[in-house]
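FW: tagging you since you asked about this chain on Friday. Here's the raw sequence from the shared folder, copied in full. Didn't touch anything.
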Amino acid sequence: MNILIIGAGALGIGVGASLVDSGCQVDFIARGETKDAIKSNGIARKGMFKDIIVPAGKVGVYDDYASLPENCYDYVLITTKTTANEEVSECLLDYSECMKDNCNIVFMQNGMGYEASFAEKFPQEMLYHSRVITGFKKELPNESTITAHQAPILLGSIYGYDEEEIKDLADAINNSGMPAQLEEELSKALWAKFIYNTTLNPLGAILGKSYGELADSDYAHPIMDILIEETFEILNASGSVTYWSSADEYRKVLFEELIPVTYEHRSSTLQDIEKKQRTEIDTLTGSLLNLASRCNVSAPVHSMVYWLIKAMEENF
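HL: got it, structure written out here
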């Protein structure tokens, strides 16, 4: 398989190394020091699971879409921050000749609603999603370290198309030692991740705490309880479903099972704030608040968290 990865951050590098290890040809869209590092030194995946070192020349890298080879890619993986999706979708449409006729676009991003700009430009049957709750950290421009792993990467369609269409991609990731599989009811899994992220990511960024530190805090813990309660009110009002039927049921799983295995993880939102760059708050809490508004549900604590993050971003 020939695979184009748009977004050479921690997740993109980690998944890219996995795919090369499974025999795929992988190219990146990358710029600046990241492009130079990949071109000169290749890429690497380290940390949990096996280490993968991909030498220079075994992976391609381009800094513009116009240079991409024509009729080449079986998959395009979107691993950028969701803040870039409008630009990325426009560029990919302008240079769509790089994709084969049966190419699929796979989103590996946080939040909800981030596919909107792509859905306006490409057929729904091309668009697939993933649920990633593995923690990646990028300490060097061309290296990704897996710092936490909660469950396999899940891949499927939110539009009801056959997930078997992307089985070869799931198999390739899984064969590298990083668990991945298809999921027929992916929307349930995406909601599960969405609840997790909107509870932990922005609050952790505001307070400068890891997931475990949030759970241990006598003051942050009750805020998380309220965030979860609000989210389930919105979920139920919208007619959406996930794996848990109530806020109480989810809280038990979150604090007893999910947070302990990602105790030390510092959210991507916190990492963005520390780097003084824009976060994905609009496709995380922002998307939840938009849904709440459509369902006439009040979410005052989520609203406060959202505006605090936006206020912090004003300094960047």
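FW: The mean pLDDT is 95.
HL: agreed, and The radius of gyration is 19 Å.
FW: great, closing this out.
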